[in-house]
Amino acid sequence: MLFASRRATLRLTTRGTRHLSDHAPAAAVAFSTTDSIPGSTVVQFCGLAEGSTVRAKNVGHDLLAGFRQIVGGEITSYTDLLQEARAEAMSRLADDATAKGGNAVIGLRLVSSSVSAGASEILAYGTAVRVE
After folding, report:
1. Which value, to the nearest 10 degrees, does the dihedral of the CA atoms of residues 20, 31, 130, 103 take?
2. Which region, left, alpha or beta, applies to residue 54 given φ > 0 means left and ψ of -120 to 50 means alpha?
3. In the chain, what is the greatest distance between 2 CA atoms, to the nearest angstrom?
4. Which domain holds residue 38?
5. pLDDT tens-digit profile, the chain (132 residues)
6. What is the DSSP code string of the chain?
7. Phi-psi bin for 122: left (phi > 0), alpha (psi -120 to 50), beta?
8. What's 49's domain CATH number?
9. How far apart are the first and last CA of the chain?
10. Which SUPFAM superfamilies does UniProt cross-reference here (predicted)?
11. Which is nearest to 14 in space by CA: 63, 79, 72, 64?
12. C-alpha distances in Å from residue 20, one per residue of 11, 56, 80, 126
């Protein structure tokens, strides 16, 4: 449930476990999709926090994806691209929550949208709070 700020990389596994790598931040931000952090008490609401990134596909990935569509199977290059985009959006969300005085984000949501042909935005948002 903890996530580091900007320089850390978040890897999501199929079981929903989050793994941090790279440099450890000075402070970690807890995330919850619910309206509370189990075992903690919300002592201050800091407002809406958000983080987003826009990523574009790559020509090499498109060629492999076209082949995968014919023979079937997972398009791992796109899976990796989207995992990196989610990690960046979550990192920016953590930075925004911290800048607003929070040490946790509740009501976490992730949204994706198509910005243009071949480019997508990933938006992570929630309520920044201070918990004890």
Report:
1. 20
2. beta
3. 54
4. 2-131
5. 454 443 333 433 333 334 333 434 446 899 999 999 999 999 999 999 999 999 887 656 556 556 656 666 777 777 888 899 999 999 999 999 999 999 999 999 999 998 877 788 999 999 999 999
6. -EE--TTSEEEE-TT--EEEESSPPSS-EEE-SSSS-TT--EEEEEEEEEEEEEEE--HHHHHHHHHHHHH-S--HHHHHHHHHHHHHHHHHHHHHHHHTT-SEEEEEEEEEEEEETTEEEEEEEEEEEEE-
7. beta
8. 3.30.110.70
9. 15
10. YbjQ-like
11. 79
12. 7, 24, 16, 20
Amino acid 119: pLDDT: 82
Residue 65's identity, in one-letter code, is A
Per-residue confidence (pLDDT) for residue 14, from 0 to 100:
34
